[in-house]
Design goal:
The chain is an alpha/beta fold. The protein has helices at about 1-20, 45-60, 70-75, 145-150, 160-170, 180-185, 220-230, 235-240; strands at about 20-25, 35-40, 40-45, 60-65, 85, 100, 105-115, 130-135, 150-155, 175-180, 195-210. It folds into two domains: about 20-105 and about 205-240, 3-Layer(aba) Sandwich (D-Maltodextrin-Binding Protein, domain 2), CATH 3.40.190.10; about 110-200, Periplasmic binding protein-like II (D-Maltodextrin-Binding Protein, domain 2), CATH 3.40.190.10. It has eight helices and eleven strands. Strands 5, 6, 7, 8, 9, 10 and 11 form a seven-stranded mixed beta sheet that branches. The protein has a two-stranded parallel sheet with strand order 1-4. A two-stranded antiparallel sheet has the order 2-3. This is Bacterial extracellular solute-binding protein,family 3. Keywords: Signal.
C-alpha cells in the first residue's frame, strides 16, 4: 500500500512538473480587493480570481511572481513573466511591443479622497500647498503639474491601503486612491467615518498583456480572457467582492485644472 501511494505521489509530481506554466506578475503594491498576499504568494482578491480562472480556462498552471511594482517592467523585458494584468497602454512604452493586449477587462477610476465632511475645491489649483497620500511607483497625470511646481508633495506608501490608513489617521488631508480600494476600505466603517471621494482624477480601461512568444499559448490566453469578459465571469468576480464594475462618484472626469462641482 505504501509503495502504491509513493508511486502515485511521484506520478502526480511529474504530471504537475510537465503541465504548462503561465507566469503572472504580481505587484507588491496591490492590496484588497485587488489581491491579498501571504507568504509571498497571492491567496485571494479580484486579480487573483481573474488569473486563477484564466489558468483554469486554458488548462495551464498559474505561477505567481510577486515583486516590487518598479521591478515588473524589468521582469517583462527579461522574459521572466508571461502575463501582466491590471494595466493600460498609457502606463507603458514601446518596450512592450513583444506583448499583445487583451480586451479591456476592468474599468478603474482614480479618485481624490478626503476625510468625512470635506468638500472639493472648484479647481485643483485651489488646493493649498500640502502633502498628498500616494502609492510608491504610481503615476498620477492629473496632478503632474502641481507636483512639478511644488504646490503638492507626494507622500508615498508601499500600497494603497496604507495610503488610506494614513489619511484616516490625519497624516495628510488628501490622498489618491483607486475606486475599488476606497470602496473596500470603507466597507466596514460606519457612514460618518467613511473616507470621501471628492472627485475623479482619471479613468482607465484595464487589460492584461501576454508575451508574444512561441513558448507561450498567447492566442489561447487572449481568447480565454475575451470569453471571460463576454460570458460575465469578470462581473461575477467583481460581485464576489461586492465591487460593482461602475460606481457613480462624479459626473465628469477631472482634468488638471478642474474638479466637478459638489
Amino acid at each position: 500500500m505504501q509503495r502504491a501511494l509513493l508511486i502515485l505521489m511521484l506520478w502526480a509530481g511529474n504530471a504537475l512538473a510537465e503541465q504548462p506554466v503561465l507566469r503572472f506578475s504580481v505587484a507588491e503594491s496591490w492590496s484588497m480587493p485587488l489581491i491579498r498576499i501571504e507568504q509571498d504568494q497571492p491567496v485571494e482578491g479580484i486579480l487573483f480570481d481573474l488569473m486563477q480562472t484564466l489558468a483554469q480556462e486554458t488548462g495551464i498552471r498559474a505561477e505567481y511572481h510577486v515583486m516590487a511594482r518598479l521591478r515588473v517592467q524589468q521582469a517583462m523585458d527579461a522574459g521572466e513573466v508571461d502575463v501582466r494584468c491590471h494595466v493600460t497602454p498609457t502606463w507603458l512604452d514601446d518596450r512592450f511591443d513583444k506583448f499583445l493586449w487583451s480586451v479591456p477587462l476592468l474599468h478603474q477610476r482614480d479618485l481624490l479622497v478626503g476625510s468625512p465632511g470635506q468638500y472639493p475645491p472648484a479647481r485643483l489649483e485651489q488646493l493649498p500647498a500640502q502633502a498628498v497620500g500616494t502609492v510608491l511607483g504610481y503615476h498620477y497625470p492629473a496632478l503632474d503639474t502641481l507636483f512639478a511646481d511644488g504646490r503638492l508633495r507626494r507622500e508615498d506608501s508601499r500600497n494603497q491601503v496604507l495610503a488610506l490608513q494614513k489619511l484616516q489617521a490625519g497624516r495628510y488631508r488628501h490622498a489618491v486612491s483607486n475606486e475599488f480600494s476606497l470602496l473596500w476600505f470603507n466597507r466596514t466603517l460606519p457612514p460618518e467615518q467613511r473616507l470621501k471621494a471628492l472627485a475623479v482624477l482619471e479613468e482607465q480601461d484595464l487589460s492584461c498583456i501576454v508575451r508574444n512568444d512561441p513558448a507561450v499559448p498567447t492566442q489561447a490566453v487572449l481568447s480565454a480572457l475575451a470569453h471571460m469578459k463576454q460570458s460575465g465571469q469578470i462581473e461575477r468576480i467583481l460581485q464576489r467582492y461586492n465591487t460593482p464594475s461602475t460606481q457613480p462618484v462624479s459626473s465628469q472626469t477631472v482634468t488638471s485644472s478642474q474638479i466637478s462641482d459638489r
